[in-house]
Amino acid sequence: MFRRFGSKVTIIHSGPQIVAREDPEIAAELQKILEAEGIEFFLNAMQSRSCTEAAKSRLLSRVRMHNDDSGTHLLAAAGRRPNTDDLGLDKAGVETGKNGYIKVNFRLETSVPGIWAIGDVKGPPAFTHISFNDFQIIDANLTQGKNLTIENRIVPYCLYTDPELGCAGMTEKEARAAGYKLKIGRIPMTDVARAIERMRRLE
Questions:
Q1: How many CB atoms lie within 10 A of CB 165?
Q2: pLDDT tens figures, 47-72
Q3: Contact residues for 22 (Cβ-Cβ < 8 A; gap 6+)
Q4: Residues whose CB falls within 8 Å of the CB of residue 156, separated by 6 or more in sequence, listed in order
Q5: Under a CB-based contact definition with an 8 Å cutoff, are residues 97 and 139 in contact?
Q6: Residues 114-137: what's their mean pLDDT?
Q7: pLDDT digit string, tens, across residues 170-195
Q8: Is pTM, for the whole model, over 0.85?
């Protein structure tokens, strides 16, 4: 977004690939697309010491790179914490994990009978549709006598890049780690009829 607004954008990432959950070839393809838009990447930033300094003045944040390039504004994307500190969970006996997320079982029950937790407060994945599905599960169990759980729930999600990256279920590396035999198919977007038609309209 900022690159399309005209800013020079550099992403400094501590890991070996962007979107760490995805399979390596997916991450590499997405990085190539973003680089084509003019975004620069520094991966393995901690090991390579490509980022040597970060400082903040009254008006600007400044990051200095090993090649003496520096930026004027810093967006730190270091994850999120649940806002559970002042809920009095300890007084109710509701257990939380080390990061403050409320512990639940597969039925979304907390450590205290009669208290459930749904949505981001119970930990990732932090998606609106997951929060709604959490509600559906609890509602069905409490009001309809069902026994639904989140175990083996298939989670669809999307990264709003251009083109978008859409996913559902396991990645290839997760499936291999689980011991599944895989049949893999690949098709480039240049062979997808809708993509071909869209490019014709843009031309």
A1: 17
A2: 655 566 666 665 555 666 655 566 77
A3: 30, 165, 167, 171
A4: 129, 166, 167, 168, 169
A5: no
A6: 94
A7: 899 999 999 999 999 988 888 888 88
A8: no
Asked if residue 96 has pLDDT above 60, the reply is: yes
Write phi, then psi, for 132 (nearest 5 degrees). -65, -40
pLDDT confidence of residue 75: 80
Cα-based distances in Å from 129 to 58, 75, 84, 139: 40, 27, 21, 15
* Bridge partners, residue 41, by sequence: 11
Kindly report, residue by residue over 135-161, the tens digit of the pLDDT: 999 999 999 999 999 998 999 999 999
Q: Return the pLDDT at 36.
A: 95
Strand ranges across the sheet with 70-71: 51-56, 61-65, 70-71
Q: Which residues contact 175 (CB under 8 A, 6 or more apart)?
A: 182
Domains of the chain with bracketed CATH: 10-76+170-202 (3.50.50), 86-169 (3.50.50.60)
Biggest alpha carbon–alpha carbon distance for the chain: 64
Helix (H) or strand (E) segment spanning residue 157:
strand 156-159
Phi then psi for 159, rounded to 5 degrees?
-100, 125
Higher-confidence residue of 199 and 25: namely 25
Residue 116: how many other CB atoms lie within 10 Å: 19
Long-range contacts of residues 83-86, Cβ cutoff 8 Å, at least 24 apart: 83/121, 84/121
